[in-house]
Specification:
Protein name: D-beta-hydroxybutyrate dehydrogenase
CATH superfamily: NAD(P)-binding Rossmann-like Domain
Strand content: 5-15%
Oligomer: single chain
Strand order of the largest sheet: 3-2-1-4-5-6-7
Pfam families: adh_short_C2
Largest sheet: 7 strands, parallel
Radius of gyration: 18 Å
CATH architecture: 3-Layer(aba) Sandwich
GO molecular function, one term: 3-hydroxybutyrate dehydrogenase activity
Family: Belongs to the short-chain dehydrogenases/reductases (SDR) family.
Length: 263
């Protein structure tokens, strides 16, 4: 079903760990060349980049653009275009989180979360759409969240940014609908990523609960399946949206949240 992905080229922000890294590995396994991006230990990132290239026989590159800096984001897209010749897939996945009552929410954390979780997607899309229009083909996938559709307390910046991502997704989809380009959002529930692991401790502090109580009564309580969403499940949906068979899907939020938003 996904043979058409072989030889495609993808840029994936926030792909040195968590969901983004698994997206990169999943696409590489289908023959997609990948441009990684994100922060972390330089030696470990290089090891990851090389491992993807060696394991899957694809071109695997890395650019450390800071997602709060528009000029560096423009440089990331330009480097990918120069290296690959074209950009077929753009995945906006970079994200950070802060859990705090709104009256105590640090101003600088609000600004950082909006910049990384929302504004960076605007900048990557702005610079990638002309490339995709020239090709008459493109797949843009934004990692949103169940929090793009519903809210939770103590996550003002994250929920605002993810709701914004849905508005951006719909707007871009309409603008490029006649250019062979789709733009969709994947809305995961809780996936046991490093970001979620950090949230567990922060949420426990904000709510006066133990970490085990947070897992059971806050996170998995929201998901009727009572199970974390897996990386494999996310990769299956991503492959569909990036492939030719997913070409009729655009401007849509794809919930993969264990039933959370069905309530």
């Amino acid at each position: 079903m996904f043979d058409d992905l072989k030889g495609r080229n993808a840029v994936i922000t926030g792909s040195t760990s968590g969901i983004g890294l698994h997206y990169a590995q999943g696409l590489a396994a289908l023959g997609v060349n990948v441009m990684l991006n994100g922060f972390g230990d330089e030696a470990k990132i290089e090891e990851t980049r090389k491992d993807i290239a060696d394991t899957y026989g694809v071109t695997s590159l890395y650019n450390g653009a800071d997602m709060t800096k528009p000029k560096e984001i423009a440089g990331l897209i330009a480097e990918a275009k120069d290296a690959f010749g074209r950009i077929d897939i753009l995945i906006n996945n970079a994200g950070v989180q802060k859990v705090s009552p709104i009256e105590d929410f640090p101003d600088e954390k609000w600004d950082q979360i909006i910049a990384i979780n929302l504004s960076s997607a605007f900048h990557t899309i702005k610079h990638t759409v002309p490339i995709m229009k020239a090709q008459n083909f493109g797949r843009i996938v934004n990692t949103a969240s169940a929090h793009a559709l519903v809210a939770s307390p103590f996550k003002a910046a994250y929920v605002a940014a993810k709701h914004g991502i849905m508005g951006l997704t719909k707007t871009v989809a309409l603008e490029v609908a006649e250019n062979g380009i789709t733009c969709n959002a994947i809305c995961p529930g809780y996936v046991k990523t490093p970001l979620v692991e950090d949230q567990i401790a922060d949420t426990a502090k904000a709510r006066g609960m133990t970490e085990e109580e947070v897992k059971k009564k806050v996170m998995l309580e929201a998901q009727p399946t009572k199970e974390f969403v897996t990386y494999e499940q996310l990769n299956g949906l991503l492959a569909y949206l990036c492939s030719d068979v997913g070409g009729g899907c655009t401007g849509t939020a794809y919930q993969i949240d264990g039933g959370w938003t069905a309530k």
